[in-house]
Amino acid sequence: MLARDRQRCAYCGEHADTVDHIVPRSRGGVHDWSNVVAACRRHNVEKGDRLLEELGWRLRHVPSAPQGLWWRWRPIEDPDPLWAPFLPIAS
Ligand SMILES: [Zn+2]
What we know:
Strand order of the largest sheet: 1-2
Number of strands: 2
Low-confidence stretches: none
Bound molecules: zinc ion
Radius of gyration: 14 Å
Helix content: 10-25%
Mean pLDDT: 82
Number of helices: 2
Largest sheet: 2 strands, antiparallel
Oligomer: single chain
């Protein structure tokens, strides 16, 4: 997520060193491309388990799965284990 968002906080654009669930996991949010954004520590802490609507926050961009060449950067035989949930199951 950090690489996808170029290590920029989705809320303020400052350097991001953590990730944030847009809909917190404690509120039923899922861990996928559309619900996780890079965030700076300050915003991650400030947000806690609240929703954006409750804070009046806005995302600088709408998160989505990476497209195109992104997927070919890494050999498919050796995917990062952290990516496993996002990769199609090999048949
Ligand atoms: Zn921030």
